[in-house]
Structures are given as C-alpha cells and as structure tokens.
Amino acid sequence: MAKKPVKKKEVVFIGYVRTQVDKVAKDWVAANLLNELQMGGKLIQLASDGYKVSLQWRDEDAAFVAGLYCGDSSNSNAGLMLTSRHNDALKAFTLLVYLHEVKYDGTWPDYQDSRQDTDW
Questions:
Q1: How many domains does the chain have?
Q2: Is residue 6 in a domain?
C-alpha cells in the first residue's frame, strides 16, 4: 500500500534580506562570472536544495532581478527572499550565487538584523 504524502509545514513570507554590493562582491562576480551552462547547473542545484529560483526583467529598474526564496520550514532561511539586480542576467544571477554561497555561506542574516544593515 502506498504511503500517504506528508504535508510540509506552510512557510509564511517574512521579508527580503537586505545587503550591500561592495567592491569585494563586484570583483568576485567579475572573476567568477557564470556562463549559461553553469547558470543552468546552479539553478538546478538551488532548486534541488529547496529554493524557488527566479529571474525576471523589471522595467522600473531597467535590470534583471535574480531571486531565491526559501519555502522549506526546516531551513534557517525559511520565509526569506534574497535578491540581486544587474542589467546583465548572468551578472545578476552570479551575484545572487555570491551572496548565497560566499558572503552568507548558505545562512542569510535575520530579517530584522538585515533591515538595519542598509536601506536600499
């Protein structure tokens, strides 16, 4: 007999992680810019890790916005959204990877703490 699927605990959106893009971030992106194939692989990895990954063009910003949303209630990032922007899609996504994997090492700052970090 098949097992009944376990319903995951619903995650409520908390807010956006606010961060500054400094020279270190810009230099890292320039040195580690992903190509389309690498971006696809990274997108699959992030989705497999339980993140909702998005990339969209915003006319208001004249930029691509890359985003990660954590809907996994067992993850410390649950309910948070991490975003990056650039007029080049690969740079926006590479910056998002930098923020997630390098700057924050997979654990984003608490929403309340990040609100005080900078006002963007």
A1: 1
A2: no
